[in-house]
Amino acid sequence: MENTIRGDPALEPATIAAARRLVGRGAVAVTSNCGFLIRHQWAVATALDVPVALSSLILLPALLRQLSPAAKIAVLTFDSTRLTEDMLGVVDFADRSRIAIAGVEGGEFWHNSLDRPPRLSGLDVIERDVTASLARIRATHPDIAGIVFECAGFPPVSRRRSVAQRSFRSTISPISPD
């Protein structure tokens, strides 16, 4: 996990090889559950003859065009210190200014996931970290109209009615990789 988040370039050939094995076994599309694999999206997509969607982050440009120009999208990530500008897929400065990024780095879920061996986090731990991050981002960006979850660990708690609503006091549908 840490190699993926850090952006280890050695993962690209392994990711392509794994995707080719899936296609060889009959897969008609290849997806992943880690948003940080967006770094390998182009390489994997060009190596295969099936659709490839390695990250929920590929949705950002399309989602921005579906919202009012005044609306923002929150990207909630496992580690905002490792989420780089090129991973957002947005080149227009006006569009980039509409993306607010928050992470759960430093929280219990983050620490548990990076421990060796990793420790499982209960839904209550993940929910607490996600809710705290969303509250922080909402405090500085009140015009958020949607949430993209970069991390596959977040969707289980997004289904708990209160997570987005508690943070945003409205009904927002989180956009997640699952």
Describe the structure.
- Residues 169-174 have low confidence and may be disordered.
- The chain is built from nine helices and six strands.
- It has 178 residues and is of the alpha/beta class.
- Strand 3 (72-77), helix 5 and strand 4 (99-103) form a beta-alpha-beta unit.
- The protein has two domains: 2-53, no CATH class; 56-175, Rossmann fold (3-Layer(aba) Sandwich).
- The strands form two sheets. It has a four-stranded parallel β-sheet, sandwiched between helices. A two-stranded parallel sheet has the order 1-2.
- The longest helix has 18 residues, at 123-140.
Keywords:
178 residues, alpha/beta, Rossmann fold, 2 domains, two-stranded parallel ribbon, 9 helices
Give the CA-CA distance, first to last residue.
Answer: 18 Å
Secondary-structure arrangement, i.e. CATH architecture of the largest domain? 3-Layer(aba) Sandwich
* Strand residue percentage: 5-15%
Helical proportion, percent range: 40-55%
Order of helices and strands: HHEHEHEHEHHEHHE
What is the rounded Rg?
Answer: 16 Å
What structural class do the secondary elements suggest? alpha/beta
Mean pLDDT over the full residue set: 88
Instruction: Sum up the overall morphology in one term.
Output: globular
Instruction: Quickly count the helices.
Output: 9
How many domains make up the coordinates? 2
Number of strands: 6
Low-pLDDT runs of 5+ residues are 169-174
Largest sheet strand order? 4-3-5-6
Largest sheet: number of strands, sense, barrel closure? 4 strands, parallel
CATH topology of the largest domain: Rossmann fold
CATH class assignment of the largest domain: Alpha Beta
